[in-house]
Amino acid sequence: MEELYEIIRNALRKGDAFTQYSSSQYLLMVMGTSSENARKIGECIKSRYEAGLERKIRSDIEYDIYPLG
């Protein structure tokens, strides 16, 4: 999860926020962007994480997008 933390931290813009929601989940708040761009951020994080896996371990990253308003 530490690797994922660093990937998320580096993928977000200044002003966006994230926190560890549980032992295996993070909550990201991406402000002032479209759903399409939020999906791109999610895909970017997912692909960077999967590319960094050195050994074959069971790992799955899923994300959902919800408007705050």
Show unreliable segments. none
Helix content: 25-40%
Whole-number average pLDDT? 85
How would you spell out the order of helices and strands? Answer: HEEH
Give the spatial strand order of the biggest sheet: 1-2
- Which structural class do the helices and strands define? alpha+beta
What is the molecular shape? globular
Number of domains: 1
Radius of gyration based on Cα positions: 12 Å
Beta fraction: 15-25%
Q: Tell me the major beta sheet.
A: 2 strands, antiparallel
Q: How many helical elements?
A: 2
Distance between the termini: 30 Å
How many E-type strands? 2
Keywords:
69 residues, alpha+beta, two-stranded antiparallel sheet, 39% helix, globular, GGDEF domain-containing protein, GGDEF_dom
The gist of it:
This protein is α+β, with helices and mostly antiparallel strands and 69 residues long.
What does this structure look like?
The chain is of the alpha+beta class and about 70 residues long. It has one domain. Helices cover about 40% and strands about 15% of the residues. A two-stranded antiparallel sheet has the order 1-2. A hairpin with a 2-residue loop joins strand 1 and strand 2. InterPro entries: GGDEF_dom. It comes from Clostridium scindens (strain JCM 10418 / VPI 12708). This is GGDEF domain-containing protein.
